[in-house]
């Protein structure tokens, strides 16, 4: 890394992960996430993103200069349409590396923080700490840190009386104490995707709190190796003895999801951004470009995913020979239109960008949420189209490629499973790849994930609702209705 | 109109329609489309579009200057992203006047011609006549003419042998003779939407012909009052004694659809653009920006329609009080996302614009067709959402507003039909308006029309298929598969 | 009619409609619904149903004998599966006459009353009057009367305080007075489909009332010519100068919808079934076979409609020649499966019939409501399939068949519009027929109607929810979960 | 087992599987499927079906008597509606044991054979061997054998010229030689679901062959341990170190899918049913009740699956507390209607049963295929509804229940993951169960499987198309159109 550049290499990032963090898979404590089979391949994937960014060949696309430093492009506080375009291209290059399957890549939460840093006056004193936020933005920008977030309470926490009644600790993370140095937090937050590969966790509330939930209204940042913090990983998808050939996507791209459990974790004041104001703790996302910037990244990422999906539709149709059937060609055209739709919706966010105070520029928020709604509602359907094209072919393969180890079986395999379109091994490789997007547990996680990426459907639609100019739309009807009126009838009667 | 400006007023346009054209509604011959009750209201609508364009207040948005003249914006041969943006805004202002319900407005075929004039070398001699096309472009631009088209053969015409065998005239329009002055055409073309309000009809072939269909491969322009030409209108939607109050949309916005019947219509050579080359007669649309420009207008128009639709969803929910129900608010958010999706897809076409030879700029074609596929596939579904919000309310109204003519009935009506949200007359007005988009025959025509705007689904999807960069998409899969391979297995066996 | 038989002829029924009833179409008062052009054709349709029933050839299918009389089959209080089968066949024969487009035929409310008469003890005294109900059942059975119902309050009536505050009469129908002879009712009820062709209107509440809505909790029957009663018809669909050729379905099958306005209508006590008990006024439908019997008829009727729809899909595909395209044949198979699905769901209601007290038999209620949900949710989709098959063909026809009046036009029409599959007139006839199911206002009314046949979707689903054996379904999960438990882990760790 | 009864016990069945059969998982040869971890749990499931059948308590439901023997109910050649009802109940009891997740249970192919044995004259000599079929039917009935089938060629085999050209063995199974004792077959067939747990494999062709594919037109039965036969299993779903707690469905119900590879397998003549007639080799399924009986079982099985699915929807909604939300209650009503729909469609097949020659009774075939189309088209959608109800809850769980092994973690787990509705372990157990139906690889296999249960959608719809009475449906339209005609117009003109 050039001394002036804040561009971390992959190796540097991997090194940064060996920091004593506490990660559990069930009751197993993971010593080193960069070496444990459940995590090491995805860790390499994260490293490769850093390497790509640091590659001088990508300097123009992936970085920008400001205040004498050179930073990752996703820290750019946009001022023009072109800035927004540069952000989009940066997200796209990162997403393309993982085909959108590693959604909470380093550019995701960084975009939240950057968007927030573009409208600091929303972090209103005394409960908001704008100067801390700005300093934090500059800090992660300078260190090129990987920040993830945990901004939702556990399902378990929706009925606090229940816990009180039973003399149980309430599970939701909250401030339990504060002193001159900072606050102390305890409890659980979900769902810190990517946390095992990250440096910092942003703690906050993207879902509205009740006004009296003041202790829960803490927004802060903690390092992944904070004392008292443990990360409970959901079942890793690459732990099950599968090879890369069997499960090429799950093998590399399991970004992991973790519950964040804090037991008396100390947060110094300068890492506290909101404290004690339930409404403010959420407003900082939606009254600044923060939430919009983060979700723009999501739609760009989805676009990359659709490109892989449509590519697979095409290759599978080719492999089965179905690409010659008119109805299948129409289907391919239809799936290509899916890719074109999200491509259009991403680009539209830029073309119809919004001007913000102090010369800032923001993606068109209504279009961001509209695209997000489309993405979350339709993913299962798009996967189903690829499923349909795969047909029974996914089951007509040996259990795994180990058949090649036995000469007699290998002979049968290469003979019986080849087709005019492809040799046996290539066919199996292609169908295994497709299966990892439609049928494996990795595929299952993605079907669940896309649907709940931004919460339940009503949450996404509340965003859209909020960002709709209802006066304009209602006004269309009002003006139309005002342009005519009923008139006393003079119609001919059917009977005299 | 300024003497230097080519901007027709509404009155000038109406005058231009009294030209002796032959229009039939069933066996009724229409003398003057600007005065006949089946057509006069829609004729006024067309006139109002011309007036809006000619209004000095809209000079910047609706016109451009070139070669010393000032022309309607949709004749602009785009060279920059900004030019494309200007075209879009122009389409949008026209579409907003009719809420997208008058799709084949004057800017539609004009865009086809303009797009074609941006890539003249595709009109290859000897069968193509580039110079005629350019002259025609300049002619309609200068006269601000309203051109529509008829570019599809009648369903009846798909089996020519049948007609030959029975000694019948083949119905499809074709060249029956040519001489020094031009060609003579006879036969039927469909479906000249807007023709009764237009000045010229563009005759052509947007659907591929068989290579030997040389006489059908005629592309030319004829005036609406050409000798030998008759227009057979489908059932007008405003002929049925309804008032504007009953049917406010059908009353004004029935753009009409006509079959074009030619009996020995003479076309001078300078109005012939392609003659005798079946492949070329279609290529001129898809190898130039022509088809893309025309269909961009369609997606802009659809956007306006969605704005009315979503506005109505909101107003109807307000009128029934359902807007307070969380599930209905989610539905409104979802419908707003529909508007945001098409808004995004329109804007995306501009942001991701294509550079063409000779410094021209074109909307992103893949995004145009992707948007078109989305539009055609989903219209009935969107209408169904408004239908759902209307509930039974549309039936809970008197037959018509004539109840107000009878004091006793009027008293009952205004008393029994008012609600906390609205007085009886306003409620009825609103529900009648909504019904004209979901339930009336006008609504039925639009549900049919949007589905077949660009032909059957496979036609739209063939466009998308053609404009897809399959190498790029397949390459994603290829590169991914090339990045790993099977390895001889060393997995632990479950049994020794 | 045999003197012992209670089987009315069509003529007798038409005579019964000339009884001084007050019917308004807007401000026009209709003198004789059997002669007025808005109603006479549908009145003939009703008469033809009566004639079919009275036809000796249909005696076995359409009638049953009990207590020395012979009655319409839909008055049969079922005791066996075979009785239920007979009811179904009877409904089907009636529905087939109108292709399910005249849903509130005489067998509809008669089934409600018959089902109620099978469980009289639910009409609990003092607010319920079981003996009156039984007498009424016998009366309408003996007179073969056509009863319709109005059992929903107007949208306007959901906020009674509003009216009180403004000193306005509350619009909902209620008891305003009672005396020794009976009760007096005033106010509005919706939506009395078929009322203009019926003899009696059943007034009641199928949607739950608030417990304190005691005066609204009136269930009774009034004759259509009751003093003080007026029927306000929604816009008739056959009033608009269309011919039978143009609109063959709307011409015959507009069953009409009317608002019921009562001004001091007197109801004698023996026609009062529930009075003063809000809960009971609804329970009588769902705690007896009443609601189930009525909605069984609806699913049978829908089946007839699907048979017409699928027949039209087939004929239209034949007419365009598309029936030779594999994808279209698949579509026809798919649409046939729609018909088979509702056929199965109707027959299943019989096969899985329920035994009720006192030896009665009832259709399987869960299956009735499940079928109803399927019907209401999917109608617009099924119509859209026919719309798709029609393509642009519906617009490629002259305005109306009057072209045949002019020899020159007739010559062009028969020549240019014929195809290898059909002559021009037959094609036009077929497309006009299809249009009346997909695009006309009659079609629009049916798309709205099927969706709200039984109220909003949540109402239908509440019925299904109520009739679900949740203990059984939850028990499946409970037993499965009880059959295994977690065991202390002995899994191999991935690292020592 | 009683000496007169042909009712195998579970233990007897497991014993029968240790017969030297050759089964591969990749390159691993499985010694004993009843003991290998990949198969033993599912083998127990099969055994439990046999035990349930043999249980005297189920004697009436699960068996019937004929010719002095007592047999499994699914061998009953139905003669009455009641017989069909008994078959249905038998299938249902078997399906309920596996919640429809083990579709190719012993009653599946047995039903194919039984249906065929009801119309023996379709196995026309000389290529059909009716007497062999009858003997085989009696043989499997008497031995209570578990028969599965492989009746589709491998995807690889659709272009025979390709193989010839390259001098490769054609992969499709075919007769390579015949002699006095029988035929010799070689090649591959797919997809023998359940084969590793079965006794016999039925080899045949349910998809039409080309007329000249005479050697492929072999229909016969071979034992699973036939010399020269090997079964290649697809990846077992229970091999991956998961516990029953993690994956309760996959653990027990992985019915397995195998490719059938034959190398010179000898088939004695008495096990040959069709030989040398391509058309006949398929007709035996669709011209007898065979295919209908087999697919009836499939729809019954699907019903059981829907009962588990809807039960899970209910339990999950209860566990998250969402069951109190009106919109979720509506959703539960909707899902219950899904269960009611398939319940109705299964029962309808019985109520509308068909009479066949020689006194036999058959399920209504059109309804069977209509139900099948509904099942295959909608499964992914139904799963998506459960996915939606699960929300993010499926990710908010520790990796596995091993957390309970560590007291400190166990303490956190039981404290932080409990809710007012359930303790932590029960919640995790429920969400893991749901995940095994929506997200695991087992779930993925079922989403693929239901879609292709009966082949691609056009195959299912061709069955429906074939079994449709198009004359009846077209006749509806024909008669309607014949009932009116156009009349010379006398309509008032709008202009004189």
**Mean pLDDT score of chain A, rounded?**
93
Shape verdict of chain A: globular
Q: Level of helix content of chain A?
A: 40-55%
Largest interface: C-D, 83 and 83 residues
Distance between the termini of chain A: 95 Å
Q: Report the oligomer.
A: homotetramer
Structural class of chain A: alpha+beta
Number of strands of chain A: 14
Low-confidence spans of chain A: pLDDT under 50, at least 5 residues?
Answer: 491-496
Task: State the helix count of chain A.
Answer: 17
Largest sheet of chain A: 6 strands, mixed
* Beta content of chain A: 5-15%
Rg of chain A computed from alpha carbons, rounded to a whole number of angstroms: 26 Å
Largest sheet: spatial strand order of chain A: 2-1-10-11-7-6
Topology:
4 copies of one chain form a homotetramer.
Chain A: H1 10-17, E1 23-25, E2 28-30, H2 40-54, H3 59-62, E3 63-66, E4 69-72, H4 81-98, H5 107-117, H6 130-143, E5 147-150, H7 160-165, E6 174-178, E7 182-189, E8 200-203, E9 218-223, E10 229-233, H8 248-253, E11 258-268, E12 272-275, H9 278-286, H10 290-320, H11 326-351, E13 354-356, E14 360-362, H12 365-390, H13 407-416, H14 424-438, H15 441-452, H16 457-466, H17 470-482
Parallel strand pairs in A: 1-10, 5-8
Antiparallel strand pairs in A: 1-2, 3-4, 6-7, 7-11, 8-9, 9-12, 10-11, 13-14
Helix pairs in contact in A: 1-2, 4-10, 4-11, 5-6, 5-10, 10-11, 10-12, 10-14, 11-12, 12-14, 12-15, 12-16, 14-15
């Amino acid at each position: 890394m050039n001394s002036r550049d804040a561009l971390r290499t992959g190796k540097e990032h991997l090194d940064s992960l060996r920091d004593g963090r506490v990660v559990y898979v069930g009751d197993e404590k993971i010593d080193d996430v960069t070496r444990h089979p459940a995590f090491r391949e995805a860790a390499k994937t994260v490293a490769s993103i850093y390497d790509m960014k640091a590659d001088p060949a990508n300097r123009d696309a992936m970085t920008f200069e400001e205040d004498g430093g050179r930073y990752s492009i996703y820290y750019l506080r946009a001022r023009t349409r072109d800035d927004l375009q540069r952000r989009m291209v940066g997200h796209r290059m990162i997403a393309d590396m993982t085909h959108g399957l590693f959604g909470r890549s380093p550019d995701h939460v960084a975009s939240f923080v950057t968007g927030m840093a573009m409208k600091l006056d929303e972090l209103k004193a005394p409960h908001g700490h704008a100067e801390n936020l700005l300093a934090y933005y500059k800090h992660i920008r300078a260190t090129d840190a990987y920040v993830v977030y945990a901004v939702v309470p556990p399902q378990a926490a929706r009925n606090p009386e229940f816990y009180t009644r039973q003399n149980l600790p309430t599970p939701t993370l909250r401030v339990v104490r504060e002193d001159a140095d900072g606050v102390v937090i305890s409890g659980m937050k979900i769902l810190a995707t990517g946390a095992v590969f990250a440096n910092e966790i942003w703690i906050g509330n993207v879902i509205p709190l009740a006004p009296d939930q003041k202790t829960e209204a803490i927004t802060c940042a903690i390092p992944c190796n904070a004392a008292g913090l443990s990360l409970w990983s959901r079942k890793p998808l690459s732990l099950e003895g599968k090879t890369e050939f069997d499960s090429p996507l799950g093998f590399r791209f399991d970004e992991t999801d973790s519950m964040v459990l804090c037991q008396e974790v100390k947060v110094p004041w300068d890492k506290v951004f909101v404290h004690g104001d339930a409404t403010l703790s959420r407003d900082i996302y939606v009254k600044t470009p923060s939430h919009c910037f983060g979700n723009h990244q999501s739609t760009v990422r989805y676009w990359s995913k659709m490109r892989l999906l449509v590519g697979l539709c095409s290759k599978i149709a080719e492999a089965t020979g179905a690409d010659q059937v008119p109805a299948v060609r129409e289907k391919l055209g239809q799936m290509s239109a899916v890719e074109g739709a999200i491509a259009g919706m991403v680009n539209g966010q830029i073309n119809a960008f919004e001007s913000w105070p102090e010369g800032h520029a923001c993606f068109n928020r209504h279009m961001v949420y509209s695209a997000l709604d489309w993405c979350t509602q339709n993913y299962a359907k798009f996967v189903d189209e690829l499923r349909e094209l795969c047909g029974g072919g996914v089951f007509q393969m040996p259990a795994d490629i180990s058949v090649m180890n036995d000469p007699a079986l290998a002979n049968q395999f290469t003979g019986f499973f080849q087709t005019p379109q492809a040799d046996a091994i290539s066919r199996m490789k292609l169908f295994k790849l497709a299966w990892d997007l439609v049928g494996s547990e990795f595929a299952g996680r993605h079907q669940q994930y896309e649907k709940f990426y931004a919460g339940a459907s009503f949450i996404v639609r509340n965003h859209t609702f909020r960002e709709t100019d209802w006066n304009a739309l209602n006004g269309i009807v009002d003006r139309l209705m005002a342009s005519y009126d009923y008139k006393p009838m003079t119609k001919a009667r059917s009977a005299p």
